[in-house]
Amino acid sequence: MRDDSKQGEGRDLGMGLKIERRDFLQGAAIAVGLGLAPELALAAEAERAAQDQPGYYPPTLTGMRGSHPGSFEDAHALRDGDMFQNVRDSGEEYDLIVVGGGISGLAAARFYREAEPRAKILVLDNHDDFGGHAKRNEFLIDGRLQIMNGGTMGISSATPYSEVADGVMKALGIHPEELSKASYEPGYYSGLGLGSGTFFDKETFGADRFVRAPDRRRGEGVSRAAMQEFLAAAPLAPAVRASILDIETGNTDYLPGMTSDRKKDHLSRLSYQDFLLQDAKADPGVVPYYLHRTDGLWGCGIDGVSALDCWGSGLPGFQGLNLAPGATPRMGYTPGNEMRTGGSYSFHFPDGNASVARLLVRDLIPAAIPGEGVESVVLARADYSQLDKPGQNVRIRLSAPVVRARNLGTTRNGGVEIHYRRGGQTWRVKGKQCVLACWNMMIPYLCPEMPEAQKAAQHALIKTPLVYTTVALRNWRAFERLKVSRVSAPGGYHSSFGLSQAQHIGGYQSHGTPDQPILVHMTRTPASPGLPEREQHKIGRYELLETPFSTFEQHIRSDMARALAGGGFDPARDIAAITVNRWPHGYAPEYNSLIDPDEGLPIVAARQRFGAIAIANSDSGGGAYTDVAIDMAHRAVGELLG
Ligand SMILES: Cc1cc2nc3c(=O)[nH]c(=O)nc-3n(C[C@H](O)[C@H](O)[C@H](O)COP(=O)(O)OP(=O)(O)OC[C@H]3O[C@@H](n4cnc5c(N)ncnc54)[C@H](O)[C@@H]3O)c2cc1C
After folding, report:
1. Which residue's CA is the nearest one to ligand 1's atom 26?
2. Residue 308: left if φ>0, alpha if ψ -120 to 50, beta else—which one?
């Protein structure tokens, strides 16, 4: 990673310019008047809650988003302070209280209401917006509306959607294949001659150089000649070029004399990095070139992922091994299941699965998301003041981190008492039952009474930190001149970035001419190479929480300026706004054969119902996917209703 002192001067990069990057001041400062009866106090508090204020619309907030300032401090303070003094009773009682307003929590509310149509349900979430990871970034740039996913990218999973999850999609009007056909423009960028490029930075590779990558057709490798041409232009030593050429286009069996099964077992026990260095005998200089190839799926580098999983994900170097098709039990959730099942259908709304969350909210509280029909959700402006109205059966309360969930009895109908924070105050609310659809590793702090073994299992479910940054550009002429729509930057602060997917849907168009505004999606994973995967994640989580927006902005401006210099990119002129979606608790953990026992992650032990409290979230299904989040909600509600 790059050292700050090597960044370009702030003024040239446009650091001092006014752009859309205001950090949201969390909620309205709500001081509840002393002396009010609980119900009146709650009413007064609700009246002043930020989500009820006119103009409240978090998707347009820029700066530090995702786990934004104000969303996690109370939960973190749980370990340090006592927030259970002067608790105020909300005076409310619900049939179900759902903790976590992500897709799992919203789906849980839907399943419960399906079974109990008159049920009173409260959903509590610590963020200022609903959707969990499925968040929407929205920009108005020079009069043009642009939308991007701030987290959960799309409907696409390692297995086909189950009958339950597919049923929810269909009930919401989402038919992925039809929507894809109607809205994608797959050949748009390639039709303009735009492909992908690699930016080699001088700190990592000795010289700043942008090299257009050879074009490759889907499912086909790159020809040896094209690869040679690419490598010849890259600032790499001859031995490194030779190794990469061999890995990419060679046909050597690096494990001669072993059966396919034996090879797979061997590959499951060493990292892809070790496979390249020890088995393929590659020059060590290949490591920086390949290090981030696994970022997108694992949130860590090739040193933390097994060679077998990398084979399953299509990384190069295995052509000569003659491995028999088919997964083994020692493969991770994603590559293993994709190999077994072929994966699910796929579809990407412009704001990713924020549209799925918005459709779930429309289903629960129709007035909150105006419009009819699935496509209308794309441009719908959510009315947040409808989410938590007194008197309605389903209420969604934002900026309300839960700090305690306690059983009042011992059975699944024994009742619960939930404490949450809002406006500097701890509130108590009662429910008959509860679904914890929040991050499972938080649960031991919320339910200290749970059995020690269950809490230990929950603690082990360490999530993957990652960042999706959205940069709003006034034009994309530099991309057009360089003939790229995607750039990989192996030594960059963000290891890749690319133009938004070309798409038109529901009156929305993602792209115009290169002279018009567009959004760029960037990915960063805060990894610490050399450590086991989840140790890297723990360090990365702290790094994300400690890194100020200005550090991100400096890197974004400098890295884009350097990578796209040949196309005339000027960050001061071209960047209109930046939203950094940081997810210190990102992907649900998935089995990793390098560090986990053969029996896998302790998800079943972690998700056991505890009295009137059941546990959902994608964490409890061991797969970082929307269908898993929905399936886990269905199971949790089933456990409560019997
Ligand atoms: C950057 C990113 C990209 C992804 N891309 C995809 C993709 O393309 N396709 C896909 O299928 N999946 C993707 N995922 C996985 C994604 O996590 C799931 O698809 C799904 O959105 C998870 O939903 P969930 O409800 O289980 O969890 P979450 O979305 O994490 O929701 C849980 C909610 O609970 C809240 N919470 C936590 N603690 C508390 C508390 N104490 N009190 C109140 N609320 C609390 C959290 O803040 C959060 O809002 C992606 C994830 C990330 C981070």
Report:
1. 617
2. alpha
Decide: 125 in ligand 1 pocket, CB within 6 A: yes
- Nearest ligand 1 atom to alpha carbon 134: 21
Q: What is the pLDDT of residue 277?
A: 98
Pocket of ligand 1 contains residue 101 by CB under 6 Å: yes
Are the beta carbons of 316 and 276 closer than 8 angstroms?
A: no
Q: Decide: 444 in ligand 1 pocket, CB within 6 A.
A: no
What is the token pair recorded at 215?
Answer: 């074009």
- Would the CB of 159 count as within 6 Å of ligand 1? no
Which pLDDT score is estimated for 424?
86
Is any ligand 1 atom within 6 A of the Cβ of residue 405? no
The whole-number pLDDT of residue 85 equals 80
Write down the residue that tokens 């001067």 correspond to: 9
- pLDDT value at position 4? 35
Question: HSE-up of 202 (CA within 13 Å, CB side)?
Answer: 6
| pLDDT given at position 33 | 31
**First CA to last CA across the chain, in angstroms?**
52
- Residue 399 CA to ligand 1 center (angstroms) comes to 16
Beta strands 88-99; 425-436: pairing state:
parallel
The model's pTM is 0.94
- pLDDT for position 10: 53
- Token pair of 131 as six digits: 């959707």
- Give me the residue label for tokens 């960047």: 575
The DSSP letter of residue 278 is I
Q: Are 470 and 148 within 8 A, CB to CB?
A: yes
Please report the pLDDT score of residue 14 as a whole number.
Answer: 81
Q: How far apart are CA 434 and CA 417, in angstroms?
A: 9
Pinpoint the alpha helices (H) of 101-255: 103-115, 163-171, 176-183, 188-191, 202-205, 224-233, 238-249
User: 439 CA to middle of ligand 1, Å?
Assistant: 8
pLDDT at residue 214, rounded to an integer: 87
Minimum CA distance residue for ligand 1 atom 50 = 152
User: What is the C-alpha to C-alpha distance for residues 365 and 190, in angstroms, rounded to an integer?
Assistant: 41
Q: Tell me which long-range contacts 620-624 makes (C-beta under 8 A, separation of at least 24).
A: 620/440, 621/588, 622/333, 622/588, 622/589, 622/590, 622/591, 623/157, 623/158, 623/159, 623/333, 623/334, 623/337, 623/588, 623/590, 624/333, 624/334, 624/464, 624/586, 624/587, 624/588, 624/589, 624/590
Instruction: Give yes or no for residue 127 CB within 6 A of ligand 1.
Output: yes
The bridge status of strand 504-505 relative to strand 508-509 is antiparallel
The full DSSP string for 403-420 is EEEEESSSSTTS-EEEEE
398 lines ligand 1 (CB under 6 A): no
Weakly modelled stretches of the chain, pLDDT under 50:
1-9, 21-36, 47
Residue 271 Cβ contacting ligand 1 at under 6 Å = no
Q: How far apart are CA 367 and CA 202, in angstroms?
A: 54
Cα 69 to middle of ligand 1, angstroms: 17
